[in-house]
Amino acid sequence: AEDDCPFWLEPTADFIGVEGSAHRFVLLLETQGGLEFVFNDGGPTLGGGGGGRIIPAYGITDRVTVGLGGGLGGGSQLPKSDGGDRQFTAYVEGGIPLLVRYREGLILWDSVAEIFARAPEDDLERFDPGARLSQSIGFASLRIGPFMPYGLISIDYEIFPAARGRETLHGVRFGTRVGLVWDP
């Protein structure tokens, strides 16, 4: 600090930095979206979706942040009907993500495990439970006041256990996440 700081700034031992989340409670506000492939006995189905999440988090160290939050979203799929034609189906979903973020400079690596439930648009009382594992990599910008914007690309694996006469579904999603770390 003596070599890097100008003479009018006094170094302090408890200063934890400006760009990280070390030993701070922060709020991650983000949007996400992507292209999805769902696999079942009928073959792959194309779909896509998006949503938003709010994740309260804590910086355990200068590189590791963990958080647990909530998210809402929706999407659509184009499964084949009994006649072989593709039909548009939409759904809504909500989930509880557990996030572990590793940070090296401005490079971010996120690992997320999430439990969620999804309901088709025509039967919003029938929520099917599922689980999602996600890996993302991206960059954060420099902190702007209390906010630090970031963007990541991600790959997700989803599973929906067999239920209500439906076989187990597996999904792979490729997408993006854009958000802000807010340090109130």
How many distinct helices? 0
Helical fraction: under 10%
**Would you count the extended β strands for me?**
9
Helix/strand class? mainly beta
Query: Topology as H/E string?
Result: EEEEEEEEE
Largest sheet: 9 strands, antiparallel
Give the strand content: over 45%
What is the radius of gyration computed over CA atoms, rounded to a whole number of angstroms? Answer: 20 Å
Which descriptor suits the 3D outline? elongated
What does this protein look like?
The protein is mainly beta and 184 residues long. The protein is 0% helix and 64% strand. A hairpin with a 4-residue loop joins strand 2 and strand 3. The radius of gyration is 20 Å and the shape is elongated. The two termini are 26 Å apart. The mean pLDDT is 87.
Keywords:
9 strands; about 0% helix; about 180 residues; mainly beta
Layout of strands and helices, then pairs:
Layout: E1 25-40, E2 43-59, E3 64-68, E4 70-77, E5 89-104, E6 107-120, E7 128-140, E8 147-160, E9 169-182
Gist of the model:
This protein has 184 residues and is mainly β. Helices cover 0% and strands 64% of the residues.
